[in-house]
Each structure stands twice: as C-alpha cells, then as structure tokens.
Amino acid sequence: MRRWGLVCLVLMIVASGSSPTGSSGKPGEHIPVSLIVTVNGCNPLQTSEICGDNPGVDAVYSDGEDGVKATIDKWGNLIIDFQTTKAKIRGLVYKYGATPAPPGNGSNHYMSTLGGALQPMAIGTQIEVASCPLYDDDAVRLQYRHSFYRDCQSGFGPAGWPLRITRETLTTWTVVTTGPARVFGITTRGTVQDYGAFELPFQMTLTAK
After folding, report:
1. Is 189 part of a structural domain of the chain?
2. Are 75 and 117 in contact, with CB atoms under 8 Å apart?
3. d(CA 102, CA 97)
4. Using an 8 Å Cβ cutoff, are 49 and 43 in contact?
5. Which residue has the higher pLDDT, 29 or 8?
6. What does the alpha-carbon distance between residue 157 and residue 69 come to, in Å, rounded to a whole number?
7. Does 9 fall in a domain?
8. How many structural domains are present in the chain?
9. Where are the beta strands (DSSP E) in the chain?
10. Which of 6, 18, 19, 37 has a 20 to 30 A CA-CA distance from 48?
11. pLDDT, tens digit, for every residue of 183-206?
C-alpha cells in the first residue's frame, strides 16, 4: 500500500506541473521551476569573490519573497532578479581584490544563464553556460556587468569563462565559476568602461520549491 501511495504521489506531482524535470509538451519547452537559491557567504580571507548579502553565513533567496524572482524558465535558463521592488531589499556582494574596479555593491542585481536547459539534465551530469551577472550604480549612472563567456553588449565577444552547473539530485543543482570574468561598466548610451579580467569565484545551490 505504501509503495502504491508513493506512485500516486509522483503522478500527482507530475500532473500538477511541479516536477523539476517535466516537459511542457511543446518542443524545446519545459515546465518552469520556482527556486530557493543559496549563495555562499563572504569569506573574510578571500579578497575577490561574489557572495551573498547575509554577512558571515550563506544567504538564502526564495522566489516570491523579499522582492526576489528566482526561476528556471520554460527554456531551461536560470533567471534571478534580486530586486523586483522599487527599493532594494536583497542583492549580492562583489569583492574585486584590485583597483581600479567597480564599487562592489549597488541596486537592481540580476543574473541569468544561456546555453543549456537545466530541467532535462540527468542526475550527476554537468553543463557549461554563459552568464552576465550585473548591478546598477545609481550615483554615476553606470551598470556593471560581469561576462562569464558572454558578450553582455560589451563588444568584446564571449569574454570570460563559463559557469558550470551540476545536477545533484532530482530537485537541486549547483552553480560554480570555472575561471575569471570580464568586468566592465556601461552607460545608457552604450559607452563601455573596461576593467579587465577578475577572478570572482562563487557557488550557489538551486533547490526547487
């Protein structure tokens, strides 16, 4: 009876559209996944990194809470908008470890991935994707972008190294860097201020809600 009950539960989850591996039924499309995102805490011994905004411990960002929108979309791309509200509540911390460099904090933190769908990944497999984490500096009207094997409208081409995503379990993925990112600021008119390559290691865990 218990085994039959578990089978029924799995069928109900798939039918409800909450399975993190389900297909939408249309070619190339998948069922979107709402996420809880855990980002490594800042390491006081690390001079350059990207880390969460919870000092000293890992930061947890939950889709639909504190102005955060965190999902895997129907195309399989990770999308995290850390500030859907007008006033900033959550974000990330950037430590560059060298100068000149952007300020390391600002508003409207955002990141997404391109180049591989997360939902159909088999457990234990890895893919490499492009990404462009960014944030705004309202004081000087610049947006700082971090190219992980993506142009990010810089004109540099696919600069930087890709991110590596591993499917750990049915409901979890991990995201890590594989090398440096190309960092630059860009104005609303498209003028680019290049800072060069920076090692900005980070790790995040994606958990289906």
Report:
1. yes
2. yes
3. 11
4. yes
5. 29
6. 28
7. no
8. 1
9. 33-39, 49-52, 59-62, 69-72, 78-81, 92-95, 107-114, 126-131, 134-137, 142-147, 163-167, 172-177, 181-186, 192-198, 203-208
10. 37
11. 999 999 999 999 999 999 999 999
Quick: pLDDT tens for 113-128.
999 999 999 999 999 9
- Residue 50: pLDDT band (50, 70, 90) is very high
User: Domain range for residue 59?
Assistant: 27-208
Q: Is residue 6 part of a domain?
A: no
* Contact in structure between 116 and 131 (CB atoms under 8 Å): no
In a domain, 17, yes or no: no
